[in-house]
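Tutorial sheet, problem 5. The two components below are modelled jointly, 568 residues in total.
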Amino acid sequence: MERKILVLGSSHTAAIAKAATDLDDFRAAWVKNPKRDDGPGDITVPQAIENAAATGPSDIIAITWMGTYHNIFGLIQHEQPFDFFEPGNRVEPDLTREIVPYSTLHQQFAATVSTDTFTRKITQATTAKVVVLATPPVKGDNDFIRSKLKNYRGHNVEESGVTPAAIRAKLWRLEMLCLAAHCAKSRLEFIPAPKEAITIDGFLRADLYGGDATHANADYGAMVINQLCQLRDQRT
Amino acid sequence: MDPVSRFALKIGPQTRVATAGSCFAQHIARHLKASGFNYYVAEAGHPLISEEIRTAHNYGTFSGRYGNIYTARQLKQLIERAEGQFSPVEVPWIDADGTVRDPFRPAVQPGNFASAAEMEADRRMHLKAVKRMFETLDVFVFTLGLTECWRSREDGAVFPLCPGVEGGTFDPDRYEFYNQTVGDVIADMESVIAYIARINPQAQIVLTVSPVPLMATAAADEHVLTATTYSKSVLRVAAQELTNGHRNVHYFPSFEIITGAYNRGRYYAEDLRNVTEEGVSHVMRLFLKHAASLEGEIPRQVETAEPNRSAFELAAARFVEVECDEAALDRG
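Model answer (structure tokens):
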């Protein structure tokens, strides 16, 4: 029996879709923001739920929905610059910036991740195995980000600046930690970002950059597909 | 009942009012915020963190994130630490899970600090905020809570709680119990008043005494009732002496409003320690009545019970929970 893999989620789905064009049993759909049905994307949330309902117990649905809060929170330099201590990270934060306690930040990110209703709706609609994908690691090249991004969520990037890359990487790791914990609580498997996509400093490899400030390219998408295929093969 | 016969201090909507003290002071802070006065928070937490989480992490509970300050000695030493005049030898307290507490505000960070370095960085920011607060406030409201304290035998640093109750480990060779005398409290507060007069000469000070009785006493051969009477008597006498001695120091009788026999004890909650919302509202109504600079200048009414709440919710509202570190004594 053919075992399908369906990827549903945010704009990060696009890189996976690009890499999956030749795969018959693999489909990736970018789900529109439920508040903006006229916005970018392939399908609406109700359509995503319909697609999920059409899958069976041997199939896999991979969701990439939460995991972008680190950008909302910290891509653009805040007027009150901050940094934080990351447990296990020996590199001391920039003490000239406001130090936000890790447990405070952790609670902020955990609370945000827990607002996810999309994953719950998909899980309720399907008998397939549902897994949650990490979002791609952040890009370490601030010049690249500045060159690709003029405005971000109402901020002029040139005026505000981009948050130092090391802080952005810590925020991404924190969010992935919270996402993984939320998945564990919901009894869903969390698929971390492919190890080979991450540099020794914790950033997305430059050859995997997508054409904008935050997304990865189809080569990264292919790595994720590989992770999902391995998962499917393990279930066979 | 209005026992306030003279209260010279006037507060306008722009007056920066800062608070510190025992857990009863949390009520004052809460009502000042709700009443639309300029409740001054010098350590508000990062604005990217939601207000709900900042509140849960004790940003804004008081004007600085110092937690409950029960004794005059604790306040005096906080100022000395903020001014770099006192560096206690006490090292950070490490919990069994490896997280870290600040011995001088052990319950201020839910989940504790991730490391000693983080705690020290947070403490540096905190002490800077404390200094800024004293330099820039207009009115400082301080609620005297206790005379009993635990202090380091090595350098006299006092802790808000006995080491070992909420972090740390009790060691009788390192820590000792001390019960402040009237002379101690007056001397410590004189030091605080002199400091404020030096760095912020226009600042006014309001003293109150917490009506919340002691939960337990460490005084040898004392019952908690006699220990409470001693403690509150000392604080009340000290507050009077200080008010009499300084034109910029004002006493507000919240202690009398709550403890006065006229109310037949109804301002205490079921546990006979915590103060009901009704009692707090009485205190704050009179405070705002006497302190508001012009009639009608109170920006908005203090909120009371909502009309559509269930009987259960209304009952719950009558006992307003504030975070008293002493509650930790019960958890053991």
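Marking note: The first helix of chain B runs from residue 24 to 34. Full credit if you identified this.
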